[in-house]
Specification:
single chain; alpha/beta; Aspartate Aminotransferase, domain 2; 2 domains; three-stranded antiparallel sheet; 14 helices; 12 strands; 12% strand
């Protein structure tokens, strides 16, 4: 007999993926260059040349068993050591090999983090707007994801609602900064206030409330934006990282869990991740990719195009009468739709070959997301379609 909970999920497929599939099909009709596809957050800039060169060198020079064999269950020791040293160098926290667990991207890291600190029935709080896949990530562990409503004027944290929802049943708080979908970066003031509350409530409830920090966009932060290291503010932080965006490697599925060295039982938690892997079928990310990212640990792809694209779109959206919080990072922008129903708004945009994502599933009805990880030339060409859409459907400029 088939399991009903997974059968039922078929009727709730990702809106982002559905729109991406529409864009692909439409592209086969009119040429994909003529479809202004802002649906999927797939990095558009090339991987760094150093990464490609490293892969070529390793394939030519290193023994096949070293490149293609199983890694230890916690990840390759030298890779973990390299990552820990990088984190210590960058953020001033004394990370060591024993604080790092290699995972299959940020999603794999989160899968381990949730299982580390929750039992079925425990609650995890996150903040709208949020990445919709958090629901299956959490719900299928037996824990319960609850969403704090957004503060839509800034998309920083709605602290009044948060403190009301932070009950004894909460064992973890999940944040994503820089944020998908808003592009907002939580400020030092926001992180300080959040962690002060967590310290107070942990003491009050007599159990640790862990802070799970989902950080795949950590390196995509724009000029002059305050971007604090979350782990520096709270001992009981579990950092979940992916190289997908920083190195433009989403298909390689490589990332890590980094437990704050000051966290109680940090080393035990990393060892527990190895046991969690046994239960969820995640064992040993590809050895060759672990080694390759370690070789370029402090490099990134040329991420500057994302700020260029953001500035172009932000200016145009404001000129056209949209309300929008200016992104501080990522490659997303999150305007308010020109009508109450953002699903209807985005459906109308499809007639202009503009593929926009309504934000109902992000916990912010009335808004929509644009993933501007596309060529700048295409962003500029899309403005014609955007102006025509706004003028013809909403009487704009």
């Amino acid at each position: 007999m088939l399991v009903e909970k997974y059968r039922n999920m078929l009727s709730g497929k990702s809106v982002i993926r559905q729109l991406s599939e529409f864009a692909t099909a439409r592209g086969q009709e009119i040429g994909y260059e003529n479809v202004f596809d802002y649906s999927l957050g797939n990095p558009s800039v090339p991987v760094p040349r150093e990464f490609t060169d490293t892969m070529i060198r390793m394939l030519r020079e290193e023994p096949p068993a070293k490149l293609h064999g199983y890694s230890p269950s916690l990840g390759i020791t030298e890779v973990r050591k390299t990552i820990a040293a990088s984190l210590e160098r960058r953020f001033g926290l004394p990370y060591r090999t024993e604080h790092i667990f290699m995972a299959s991207g940020a999603a794999g890291a989160l899968a381990h983090a949730f299982r580390l600190v929750t039992e079925p029935g425990d609650e995890i709080l996150t903040f709208a707007p949020f990445f919709p896949e958090y629901h299956p990530y959490v719900d299928l562990t037996g824990a319960v994801l609850k969403v704090v409503p957004p503060q839509t004027d800034t998309f920083q944290i709605n602290f009044e609602a948060f403190e009301e929802m932070l009950t004894e049943k909460v064992t973890a708080v999940l944040i994503n900064t820089p944020n998908n979908p808003s592009g907002v970066v939580y400020s030092t003031e926001t992180i300080t206030k959040l962690t002060d509350i967590l310290k107070k409530r942990s003491e009050e409830y007599g159990h640790i409330i862990y802070l799970i920090s989902d950080e795949p966009y950590r390196e995509i932060v724009f000029e002059g934006v305050d971007n604090p290291c979350v782990s520096a503010f709270y001992d009981n932080t579990i950092m979940c990282y992916s190289f997908s965006k920083s190195l433009s490697l989403p298909g390689e599925r490589i990332g890590y869990v980094a437990i704050n060295p000051a966290c109680k039982d940090a080393e035990t938690m990393v060892n527990m991740c190895g046991q969690i892997s046994r239960g969820i079928g995640h064992n040993c990310p590809p050895s060759i990719i672990q080694q390759a990212v370690a070789e370029v640990i402090d490099r990134t792809a040329d991420l500057s195009v994302y700020e260029t694209n953001m500035n172009i779109l932000y200016k145009e959206l404001i000129d056209l009468g949209f309300t929008c919080v200016k992104p501080g990072g990522t490659f997303y922008i999150f305007p308010k739709a020109l009508e109450e129903d953002s699903v209807a708004f985005c459906r109308k945009a499809l007639d202009y070959d503009l593929v926009l994502v309504p934000a109902d599933s992000f916990g912010a009805p009335g808004f929509f997301r644009m993933a501007y990880c596309i060529d700048t030339e295409k962003v500029e060409r899309s403005l014609v379609a955007l102006r025509r859409f706004v003028t013809e459907c909403y009487g704009g400029k």
